[in-house]
Amino acid sequence: MTQALARLPGLGPRSARRAVLHLIKKRETALVPLVAALQAVERNLVTCAVCGNVDTRDPCGVCTDPRRDTASLCVVEEVADLWALDRARLFAGRYHVLGGRLSALDGVRPEDLAVDALVARIAEGGFAEVVLAMNATLEGQTTMHYVAERLAGSGVRVMQLAQGLPVGGELDYLDEGTLALALRARRLVE
Amino acid sequence: MTQALARLPGLGPRSARRAVLHLIKKRETALVPLVAALQAVERNLVTCAVCGNVDTRDPCGVCTDPRRDTASLCVVEEVADLWALDRARLFAGRYHVLGGRLSALDGVRPEDLAVDALVARIAEGGFAEVVLAMNATLEGQTTMHYVAERLAGSGVRVMQLAQGLPVGGELDYLDEGTLALALRARRLVE
């Protein structure tokens, strides 16, 4: 059990041992409910065949929500990114999870990501805009440009997230790359 | 000496005591050169009457550099921001240091900042563009909008820095404010 817990992100061997001791000591109030919760997840969670989101139903709650804008599609690397953007209802359209990012180092090629599925989904029509919400990392941006190329000529507006100063960012503490981007992409004060 | 050192940003009472002991122990190799360096700064450093930069001459090296673009002016809160932007030669024009930011909490009003001097400098003509490079903090943005209002009708393009994802930013780790900005200011992939 210790080894299985230590494999979780954020838990090392030391905190895993402490968690195990806690679970053994509080068998009825901690261990039994945790097992039940994990079993429920294992039984009930499915990957949405439409967008790749993880939910208790397929198609997922986001794909079937009638209040969402059906003309706007947001493409993300991972389910965690979908949840981050949807946490505060920042994006009101639909999503598409690629399932990772292109990486020569990790051996992730285009066919390992849900890019063909995305192209097929766009070809079906109905979307006017695709927002490529990739991370501002080297691999994220490589993936973004690859997906943009695959969508060229599809007739949808292919958008990317703005880059620049983050909220609360102070010039003196930001890296030069971000300062350069913020200066280069400067815009008129409204 | 300990108290004077402890007042420096980044030095607490404990590290100030350690610094003092080090300086006393290495009187000839540490204390004497430090005193000389501080005296030289005290004697030689002046504030540039044109832009507010701190340099060994007035007008400063930035203001007198003939290779710089004389049509573009970058307005910053502090000298530290000027140095941050100029470290990597990110901005090739001239600067104007306000000397702070508007703050109701700290009692900083418009007349405490070099805004009148900025308006006068712009009125002299020659600048086509003013970049308001304020921090992306609440006070920085308040200052930015105040300065923009004061420059309205002056005939120059008043620009602001781009806001959005910083370089290396990952969606799952960024705050909702930054994600919202990055989504709202999305742009076409080139």
TrEMBL record, chains A, B:
HAMAP family in the record: RecR
Record keywords, A-Z: DNA damage, DNA recombination, DNA repair, Metal-binding, Zinc, Zinc-finger
Protein name: Recombination protein RecR
Signal sequence segment: none
Zinc finger (C4-type) stretch: 48-63
Domain Toprim residue range list: 71-166
Chain's role: May play a role in DNA repair. It seems to be involved in an RecBC-independent recombinational process of DNA repair. It may act with RecF and RecO.
Record-linked Pfam families: RecR_C, RecR_HhH, RecR_ZnF, Toprim_4
A GO MF term: zinc ion binding
A Gene Ontology BP annotation from the UniProt entry: DNA recombination
Annotated family: Belongs to the RecR family.
Organism expressing this protein natively: Sandarakinorhabdus glacialis
